[in-house]
Specification:
The complex is a heterodimer of chains A (about 110) and B (about 110). Helix content of chain A is about 0%, strand content about 50%. Chain A contains no helices and eleven strands. Chain B is mostly beta strands and about 110 residues long. Helices cover about 0% and strands about 55% of the residues of chain B. Classes of the chains: A mainly beta (about 110), B mainly beta (about 110). The interface of A and B includes residues 41, 50 and 104 of A.
Chain lengths: ~110, ~110
């Protein structure tokens, strides 16, 4: 069973604060993703990566940085957090192959920016 | 760009009712189509997929048929249970391109 672990589960910060969300997958998947989930918008892709040291820009990247340090670890960085970044964040991984592959999601990090 | 539209934002049913959640897509190519389900406090999880026209995907009593003509992939279940209460996401993705496009989600509440 694929395993994606996110930490912390909940985070509260203030406007202008510095936040790092962590994600680790133990599935040997090459692809990892960061999504945000907001009511009425569903899941929106922030950044993704296809391997250590690689970073690809998603659909809503403004205000976010990401870094993939190893195959297992993918971090999302908010260097100057704003209230508009209050959201539920999900990390996901997928297995490379010749067809569009299933995403495996973590349990999410709820971020509140005051 | 590509998009996925789920018509219903919320659906409320009684146990043993028939479920339909509508999903229509707009795509420049020939994507695979997916349904994901998200239970409270959890991340979305894969339900099933279909990769070509007229293919039916199914799992746990849910099913959907890829219809290229009507650009649809509607989710159906003959008899829902309270445990089916969750948010359901329709999505598309292309072979060789790992970016998914998700619909806005449909929240299903089943009353016992």
């Amino acid at each position: 069973e694929a395993a994606v672990t996110q930490s912390p589960r909940n985070k509260v910060t203030v406007t202008g604060g510095n936040v790092t969300l962590s994600c680790r997958q133990t599935n040997s998947h090459n692809y990892m993703y960061w999504y945000r989930q907001d009511t009425g918008h569903g899941l929106r892709l922030i950044h993704y990566s296809y391997g250590a040291g690689n970073l690809q820009i998603g659909d809503v990247p403004d205000g976010y940085k990401a870094t993939r340090t190893t195959q297992e670890d993918f971090f999302l960085l908010l260097e100057l957090a704003s209230p508009s970044q209050t959201s539920l964040y999900f990390c996901a991984s997928s297995d490379p192959g010749s067809s569009a592959e299933t995403l495996y999601f973590g349990s999410g990090t709820r971020l509140t920016v005051l | 760009g590509d998009s996925v539209t789920q018509t219903e934002g919320q659906v409320a049913l009684s146990e043993e009712d028939f479920l339909t959640i509508h999903c229509n897509y707009s795509a420049s190519g020939y994507p695979a189509l997916f349904w994901y389900v998200q239970y409270p406090g959890e991340g979305p999880q894969f339900l099933f997929r279909a990769s070509r026209d007229k293919e039916k995907g199914s799992s746990r009593g849910f099913e959907a048929t890829y219809d290229k003509g009507t650009t649809s992939f509607h989710l159906r279940k003959a008899s829902v249970q309270e445990s089916d209460s969750a948010v359901y996401y329709c999505a598309l993705a292309y072979t060789g391109n790992y970016k998914y496009v998700f619909g806005a989600g449909t929240r299903l509440k089943v009353i016992a």
